[in-house]
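Tokens for chain A. Residues wanted.
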């Protein structure tokens, strides 16, 4: 804020000149003449009494209340004693805040804010009286009125209103700047931000901030003076949109809220970063190139040069990619190549070439089989697939079947189907298939396929010839050896009838034994027999864990009555 300025009282007077250009006289404007004073200039009225009654004897404008009339009259036609002067001004105080009213007077003085008296020195005195009153002015427009009277003797008066700018006193933020606007020059790549002058009387300056669209973080660009209402900035020419905001700051350091955000969309003159991390890996179906994705890149261009002893081969543009990888299937085997890659943004700005990547195209295995499916069949999980297509299929000799990453089996290249019978019924498995050529080159794995073994039908057949008897406290079971070749062992279960349902508990196991052992047995002691009639079941379990227990399939059992306690 700035204190009021002094203007000349001639604003409301008329100067009469003679024809020779000599000052002839000063004529006071008629009392009835309308006088308009532009804020913050005071409207001043002179009265020929101390009651401020009747029509003012004179009305003019005064930019500052600082008068010393001595013992004379304040204006022509007024008495030197018993007169009154009234000053009024209505102005915008912005956000308001703490103000001081310093005054000095001889004789009477009263100061009003919006009709409320703030200073009262209404007394005939023989010397100048001084006083300072601290007030709080609300935000917005308010009217200040000063009434001064002289009864007798010397007449002088001085009144001012000034903001209190100490940080420990002024806690009121300025009003946010208004009238903000922005423009951008695509040739100079400069953004211009403008705003209207703030109404604060204690304004120290403005702070200009900028943020990237999509971000909430503001960066302070500059702090201007209070007289400055524009700022020129050069944002990065990346095609991005930036927002500008202006905040007012007062002499106490209080910062206002921001102006309305002003968007600026920059021209895109900045090329993307140079791609890094370029790798070239020889494989099937070609040389696999990969690099780190570049922020803001819309496309990539791949360059290739064949390297031989002459070294005069041209560098060729081989493709335009939209992702940070590409496989060159056109490179010929047993040759050396060098690759580069550049990035381009959506405006077409290209980067420079990346560091080179060197690679030799070798003699390769077939490509991976495709279309792998896995389905449930009666004997296990059946796989089908399509033969690979590159580089040639004439040298294909076999396929390798992998289950959960482990090799299960190999099949001749004349077929593209395989049934995995070495599975646990009701269990899901993930499979891949590879192709192998006549020199042992193995392709990469196919896309995986998941299949589920059948819930039943894979377990060994029920045992035959099962008998059982108690010998004291010991149970003895016997049965014939299973003819199934994949039986690993036999589980013995003891069953008890509970609410009409047989509930079984695994009691132990017996292994298959020697091939010439035709009869197998299981013997175990029963602790604290209760004289119950129980069932004893013997169930064959193959080497993959399949058995008939819990699948609903029939199994062999005998009924045995245990001795009483």
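Reply:
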């Amino acid at each position: 804020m700035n204190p009021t300025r002094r203007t000349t009282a001639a604003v409301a007077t008329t100067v009469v000149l003679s024809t020779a250009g000599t000052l002839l006289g000063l004529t006071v404007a008629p009392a009835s003449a309308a006088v308009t004073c532009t804020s913050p200039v005071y409207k001043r009225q002179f009265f020929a009494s101390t009651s401020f009654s009747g029509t003012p004897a004179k009305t003019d404008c005064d930019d500052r209340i600082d008068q010393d009339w001595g013992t004379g009259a304040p204006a022509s036609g007024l008495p030197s004693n018993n007169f009154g002067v009234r000053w009024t001004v209505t102005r915008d105080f912005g956000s308001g805040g703490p103000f001081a009213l310093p005054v000095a007077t001889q004789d009477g003085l009263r100061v009003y804010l919006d009709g409320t008296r703030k200073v009262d020195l209404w007394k005939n005195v023989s010397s100048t009286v001084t006083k300072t009153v601290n007030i709080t002015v609300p935000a917005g427009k308010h009217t200040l009125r000063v009434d001064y009277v002289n009864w007798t003797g010397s007449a002088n008066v001085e009144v001012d209103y000034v903001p209190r700018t100490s940080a420990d006193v002024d806690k009121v933020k300025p009003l946010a700047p208004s009238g903000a606007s922005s423009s951008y020059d695509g040739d100079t790549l400069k953004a211009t931000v403008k705003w209207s002058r703030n109404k604060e009387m204690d304004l120290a300056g403005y702070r200009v901030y900028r943020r990237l669209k999509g971000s909430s973080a503001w960066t302070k660009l500059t702090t201007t003076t209070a007289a400055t209402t524009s700022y020129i900035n050069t944002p990065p020419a990346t095609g991005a949109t930036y927002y500008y905001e202006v905040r007012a700051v007062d002499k106490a350091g209080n910062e206002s809220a921001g102006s309305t955000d002003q968007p600026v969309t920059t021209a895109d003159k900045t090329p993307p970063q140079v791609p890094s991390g370029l790798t070239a890996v020889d494989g099937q179906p070609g040389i696999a190139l990969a690099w780190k994705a570049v922020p803001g890149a819309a496309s990539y261009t791949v360059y290739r040069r064949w390297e031989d002893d002459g070294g005069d081969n041209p560098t060729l543009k081989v493709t335009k990619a939209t992702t940070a990888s590409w496989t060159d299937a056109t490179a010929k085997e047993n040759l050396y190549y060098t690759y580069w890659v550049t990035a381009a943004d959506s405006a077409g700005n290209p980067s420079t070439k990346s560091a080179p990547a060197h690679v030799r195209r070798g003699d390769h295995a077939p490509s991976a089989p495709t279309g792998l499916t896995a389905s449930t069949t009666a004997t296990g999980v059946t796989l089908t697939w399509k033969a690979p297509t590159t580089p040639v299929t004439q040298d294909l000799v076999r396929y390798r079947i992998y289950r959960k990453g482990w090799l299960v089996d190999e099949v001749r290249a004349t077929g593209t189907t395989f049934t995995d019978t070495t599975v646990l019924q009701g269990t899901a498995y993930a499979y891949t298939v590879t192709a192998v050529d006549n020199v042992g080159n193995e392709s990469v794995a196919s896309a995986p396929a998941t299949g589920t073994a059948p819930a039943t039908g894979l377990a060994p057949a029920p045992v035959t010839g099962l008998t059982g008897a108690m010998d004291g406290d010991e149970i003895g079971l016997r049965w014939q050896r299973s003819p199934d070749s994949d039986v690993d062992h036999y589980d013995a279960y003891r069953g008890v009838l509970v609410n009409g349902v047989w509930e079984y508990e695994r009691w132990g196991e017996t292994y298959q034994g020697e091939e010439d052992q035709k009869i197998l047995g299981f013997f175990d002691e029963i602790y604290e027999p209760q004289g119950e009639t129980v069932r004893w079941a013997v169930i064959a379990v193959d080497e993959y864990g399949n058995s008939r227990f819990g699948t609903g399939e029939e199994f062999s059992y005998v009924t045995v009555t245990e001795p009483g306690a």
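The chain has five domains: 9-163, 181-265, 279-361, 370-452, 467-561. Residues 1-32 have pLDDT under 50 and may be disordered.
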